[in-house]
Structures are given as C-alpha cells and as structure tokens.
Amino acid sequence: MAIIESQIDAMEEAQQRLQLAALFHALADPTRLLILEHLKTGEHKVKDLTEHLGLAQSTVSAHLSCLKDSGLVSVRSQGRASLYSLSHAQDLAAVQSQALRLGRPANRNHQWHEGHPSPEGGV
C-alpha cells in the first residue's frame, strides 16, 4: 500500500512541476507580460490588443493561447467575438510582486536569447 501511495505522490508532484513550468513559461515572455498589463484594465478582444500593442493578430492569439493554457487568462464568447480577461488578478499581482523582489538586483542584465549549457557541456 505504501508503494502505491508513494507512486501517487510522485505523480502528483510531477503534475505540480508541469503546472509551475507552464505558469513560469507564460510569465517569461515580455509580450505576454504586456498583454497581462492591458488585461488588468478589463476585458479585451484580440482586435483591441493588436491595435494597442501593434502586433499581428496571429501573434497576439498565440500569446493569449499560452496565457489561457497556463490559467492566467479566461475567455468568454460575445457573439462572434472572444473577450479575454485575467483569471486571478489579485493572485497574479502577488506573484509579480514576489518575482520582482526575488529577481532584484542580480538579474538586471539577463540575455533573453542566450544559449544555456546542456547537461553534456555544449550549448
């Protein structure tokens, strides 16, 4: 019985790691952070976001999909349009606040597209 419980615990922990990875992936892109900032003001259509951000509709849609998959953004239909909003605005604000404290001041010069070394020693 203990082995089964141990395996269940391991699977739950693995699922939590995947959820955290999805969340941090969603928060790791400056454009997605900008979209989240816009959504703090209320619901937006994709068209509104493309106009505000000056990005292609396909780009905004892809970012919204990532944010929705991570649970940060909700979508509801209104006629033929989809309206996007923050799922948990207060929780997101708390996470962002903690992340700023955690990342200060060491990560000011992070290179966004740098190669990270692989376990084999290459890039």
From TrEMBL:
Lineage per the UniProt record: Bacteria, Bacillati, Actinomycetota, Actinomycetes, Micrococcales
One Gene Ontology term of the molecular function aspect: DNA binding
Annotated keywords: DNA-binding, Transcription, Transcription regulation
The protein, known as: ArsR family transcriptional regulator
Keyword RNA-binding: no
InterPro entries registered for this protein in UniProt: ArsR-like_HTH, HTH_ArsR_DNA-bd_dom, HTH_MetalResp_TranReg, WH-like_DNA-bd_sf, WH_DNA-bd_sf
Keyword DNA-binding applies: yes
Organism: Glutamicibacter soli
All copies of domain HTH arsR-type, residue ranges: 12-107
SMART domains in the record: HTH_ARSR
